[in-house]
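pinging the channel bc i need a second pair of eyes. not urgent but kinda urgent?? the chain im working w is below, pasted from the shared doc
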Amino acid sequence: MSLTRRQVTTAALAAVPLAVAATGPAAAASTQGRPRERTLYIAGDSTAAQKYADAAPETGWGMALPFFLRERLFVANHAVNGRSSKSFIDEGRLDVILAAIRPGDLLLVQFGHNDSKVADPTRYTEPWTTYQDYLRQYVDGARARGARPVLATSVERRKFDAEGNAVGTHGEYPAAVRALSEEEGVALLDIQALSIALWQRLGVEETEKYFNWTATEQDNTHFNPPGAIAVARMVGAELLRRRVLVRRDVRRLGEVIPESWISWPES
């Protein structure tokens, strides 16, 4: 389930009545003995967000995550370009998720890329204080509604030193997420550690094939389809390894996913 650009914008302004109505007991019930449909909500930034035709081939990993989840586990990708843990909340976007989320659903939270923007007070958070304080609002909000929060460290950018070693770019933010997950007893997907290890294995030249490098742009933060698929595979595998999901919830973790499965809607 991908939100259109218009839906993402209007959703931040007001909760949708139909989403609220879906939180009642009837919506949570099983149908003819089958497990009810569940939704995995993504709160995050541009690395996960839905992209549109004017941005292709840029691809958020949230666009590829449904390829690795079973049909009855839907993805509601609320990640938006340029947001931090703070600005996402200040714009009312967490409120929209919490109005729709139901018992048994999942809220996957990945911020950090934009929290470090010191010069922008609308986005900046300090790793060991305000960043953790904002992340707790996602955790507490999901738990209050019977949903399960999941924290993820930020996926790494493509950066190498002169010796060809992959270099971290997120400072103290990943460590702050790790500490918070332990303190709050929340499952952690350490995507920062996994992604930097993958970039190291691939090397300087091969990683270009995973990022949004085009004839006019050399973007070492955002992904193209192969990169988004690779990160989404990490996310799916970690959801299984951390026992957030069980084997029947995932699929294709060891299979090749065609790039042609990625699509960019017009709006």
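so Residues 1-33 have pLDDT under 50 and may be disordered. and The first strand starts at residue 38 and ends at 44. — does that match what u expected or am i reading it wrong
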